[in-house]
Amino acid sequence: MRIKEDTPARLVLRDRIALWVSLVCFAAAILLTYQGLTHAGDAMSYIPATLFAAFGLAFLRLTDVEFDKIRRICKLRRFDVIRLTRASFHFEEILDLRVETSPGGDPDSLTCRLSLVTTSGIVPLTISYEPDLPRYDAMRDQVALALAGQLPLPAARDPVRALVDQGRVIDAVAMLRKLEGLDLTAARERIEKLRKGAREP
To answer: What CATH number does residue 130 fall under?
Structure first.
């Protein structure tokens, strides 16, 4: 997800991260279909063409999020596979912004996505997670500034604390080890202290 536009009237976020994969798959499907049409006896090229078209649809995910600063409305438009989702929230319905984190496939990587916490629940702004936590923290600050106007920005949420609050203890230990370079025992002890602190009133 990237910031496409940031003006005094609106802030627009756009996610087209996997669009190139879909375009390559659709181009391959068209090429194989053309080959099947030009070579009359080559019906076998329709099978890979169909598979490429299916993969192209599977990766076709487009998201636009517009924060209208004047009307104080957030509009979410998402196209995912063959489903179009539209949602609209007044700024007053948005309680918090989160950068949700998850350990990546590589032990040293961390992936994240931006989510809104609304009165009706948590609304992820993208379907998939991406690496680059500093960029997502900066994007969160831009969105918070658009939502708050002249009000002070809310404090950024600690990703380790967020994982503990969600009950994802193993992910919290892995993230703490990655962020602070702790060994397994020290990280587990710190997470247990966080869990006990979260349970106490």
So the answer is: 2.30.29
